[in-house]
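Contributing new records

If you add data, match the layout below exactly. Sequence lines come first and carry their own label; structure lines follow with theirs. Keep one chain per record. Anything else will be rejected by the validation script.
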Amino acid sequence: MLDVRRLRLLRELSLRGTIAAVAEALAFTPSAVSQQLSVLEREAGVPLLERTGRRVTLTPAGRNLVRHAEAVLERLEQAAAELVDARHGLAGPLRIGTFPTATRAIVPAALTVLARRHPGLEPMVSEIDPAGVADALRAGELDVALIHEYDFVPLPAEPGLAAEPLCSEQMYLASPGTPSGGEETNIARWKDAPWITATPGTLCHAMTVRACEAAGFTPRVRHQVDEFATVLALVAAGQGVAMVPHLGLADLPPAVTLTRLPIRRRTKIAYRGGAGGHPAVAAIAEALRAAVPDGLGEGR
């Protein structure tokens, strides 16, 4: 009989690429991961890994077993959901990942709704860039998370995960000057301006760069800042222009002009495949939908 815990290790190796990365993500030692995978090979009766020096790759049999592991893990999530549903009431920790603007604009109201409807649940919120959510969910560090994507940066399909739309918001070009509430503009108008972007490796940074490239230029980046309130303060100080989503405009300085862009950011609720029917996941999803601020569109 194949051990589910070892199947999870094999799945993580297929996604992360190295035994060291799997060990770090799941709080094991590399030697422990290697030993467990060796045991899984003996259980399977065929080679699952090819070792070349320090590198390890999956054999065709290993890749095929990973596909079955995905289905097994999803069914286990569904089984866990049904067991919880059979009990009376929801209780215990609920680990929620979110990004900063949603933490401020959506999550507090959602937690108020959740506490009223399910006082036994203990929500635990952690801020995390959407780019890191998939690994955290698969590793069991989070139960549910808010993620976002942009028109120019769609999220890739992630093995073992599922997501449902929450809301959609307008993107703006923030520039120094008196507010005008102008109509949509061509980004190329700002090709010679200094730009303020998020830090490299984030979806927000990739969105700005790709949107500018689609307009025919590469942005000349002066500052790299993740917090939108600080970004807007720098814009007001004449330090450059930036792209900011609607939820990032709470602390808008008076000396900033906003111009609508033909770009939207969409927020989704992500969880492990098969966990959508878990009562706790369904409860926070319902609370999040109830907490979406007025003026935001559907997340599709």
